[in-house]
Structure formats: C-alpha cells, structure tokens
Amino acid sequence: MSTDINDYIVKSTSTEWLPLIEKGTHYEGIFVKSLRYDKATQRSKTILLKFEAGASYPYHIHPGGEELFVLEGNAIIEGTLLTEGDYLYTPPGFKHAVKTDTGCQILLVIPQEVEIL
C-alpha cells in the first residue's frame, strides 16, 4: 500500500463527466465520475452522479446499502424531495428510484452493485 497521499486524491474538477452506462444500458441524461475504484470488485464504490433536468434512474435495490449526499439541485426519491445539503442513508435491501425535475449532482457511496428491478 502506498503511503503517498497523492495516490489517493482525485481532482474531480479535472475529470470529465462520462455517460452512465451499466451492463449495456445507457441512462439518458445521467453522467458519472468515479472517485474510488475498487480493483478487487472491478467497480467504483464512490461516485459523483450528475442528472440533467427531467432525468431518472429506475427502481432498484441496494444489496449493500447506500449513502447519498445532494451537492446541488434536487432529487426525488420515493416521493421525497431532497435538496442541496441533504444526506440519505439507505440500509441494505432498500429499494427506490431517483428522478429530478431541475437537475442535480449527488455524491454516492455504494458498497455493492445495485440491482435494477
């Protein structure tokens, strides 16, 4: 393990937003930046998501739970409006969809891959 802190810093403002494509499905209007990629599981466990106005992510389950922090804009989850500065912890097994009317940026910590329902 490296002891150089620079090996663990991600300059997210210098990183490009990439279209969100999971298992061959392109989620229109949603873009991603990886902050922490886990080589062992071959997936990002900490990400930034950017939703354009009107974008949505389908109903899904979080087998390992999730932590979500709204950085800007608003997100609607299970009929509840989350706005800038709101934090949501979803326990393992929790199911929901995400949509936004205005657009948003969200920080997500996702220990396990979600499953679309």
Please identify the structural class as seen in this structure: mainly beta
Give the CATH H-level superfamily. Jelly Rolls
Q: Helical stretch count?
A: 0
For the biggest sheet, the summary is: 10 strands, antiparallel
Instruction: Determine the strand fraction and express it as a percent band.
Output: over 45%
The 3D shape can be described as: globular
Organism: Olivibacter domesticus (Pseudosphingobacterium domesticum)
Domain ChrR-like cupin: 7-107
Protein name: ChrR Cupin-like domain-containing protein
Pfam families: Cupin_7 (PF12973)
Fold and architecture overview:
The chain is mainly beta and about 120 residues long. The protein has a single domain (about 30-115), classed as Jelly Rolls, CATH 2.60.120. The protein is built from no helices and 10 strands. The chain is globular and about 45 Å long. The termini are far apart.
